[in-house]
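User: Hi! I have a protein structure encoded as tokens and I'd like to know what sequence might fold into it. I'm fairly new to this, so please keep things simple.
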């Protein structure tokens, strides 16, 4: 029974995580159509790629047992994020292109170092601990990215910059893998995802408290540059929207996907 539940929550976690990984598709379709990255940031995609690579590596049988479903979704996510990063590099201006290429190289180098060290120098439980700590740290950083947005929601009493479906699928993904890790008795899976589930609950509570508030124009003008950069951790929204129309388009994109 426990093994069945473990498998079911793993599958559900895979499905909800896939929605999160596919969330920026409309954003990148916009980039391809305009042949420009406009004011979008490429950093979130490179960092998400690192998180996916580390998590996929950790889930492999020779690193940790009974975590293959962690590898399947994060391996898929890594492939998706590579495509996002490459598209961004193709259409980014020269300065931004250089920055993202450097970050992309760092991500691959860091992952390669972790993989090689764990494969060649470490064995058994030591390998699991090394890879688990690396994975948990970056996973918590990713889950913690909405904290600033939550603070802004409380200050402005508006959910303008916190899309409902992003919050919902963060909660579903975190909860599914929290239970998956709990049933598999793996703290490197349930601790960080438990943290993500808790933050997801807080986001949903804030959303339902302030869902009727659209925010004042003054608040939008003061906070949009700062806030959209934070939301971009998963959605890659513009760092500095230049026009009200552009902000409107961005919000429409948020409502259209996770």
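Assistant: Happy to help. Inverse folding works backwards from shape to sequence: for each of the 258 positions I chose a residue that suits the local structure. Here it is:
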């Amino acid at each position: 029974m426990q093994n069945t539940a473990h498998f079911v929550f793993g599958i559900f976690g895979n499905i909800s995580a896939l929605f999160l990984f596919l969330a920026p598709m409309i954003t990148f379709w916009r980039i391809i159509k305009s042949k420009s990255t406009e004011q979008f940031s490429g950093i979130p995609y490179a960092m998400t790629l690192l998180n996916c690579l580390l998590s996929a590596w950790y889930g492999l049988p020779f690193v940790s047992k009974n975590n293959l479903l962690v590898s399947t979704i994060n391996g898929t996510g890594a492939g998706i994020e590579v495509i996002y990063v490459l598209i961004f590099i193709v259409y980014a201006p020269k300065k931004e292109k250089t920055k993202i290429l450097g970050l992309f190289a760092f991500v691959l180098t860091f992952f390669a170092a972790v993989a090689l060290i764990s494969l060649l120098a470490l064995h058994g439980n030591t390998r699991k601990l090394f890879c688990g700590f690396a994975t948990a740290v970056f996973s918590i950083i990713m889950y913690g990215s909405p904290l600033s947005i939550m603070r802004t929601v409380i200050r402005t009493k508006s959910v303008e910059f916190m899309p409902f479906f992003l919050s919902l699928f963060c909660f579903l993904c975190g909860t599914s893998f929290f239970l998956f890790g709990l049933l598999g008795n793996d703290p490197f899976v349930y601790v960080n995802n438990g943290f993500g589930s808790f933050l997801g609950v807080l986001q949903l509570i804030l959303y339902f408290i302030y869902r009727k508030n659209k925010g004042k124009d003054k608040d939008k003008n003061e906070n949009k540059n700062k806030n959209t950069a934070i939301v971009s951790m998963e959605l890659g929204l513009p760092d500095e929207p230049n026009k009200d129309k552009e902000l409107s388009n961005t919000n429409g994109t948020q409502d259209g996907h996770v």
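A useful reference point when you look it over: The CA atoms of residues 9 and 212 lie 33 Å apart. Feel free to ask if any position seems puzzling.
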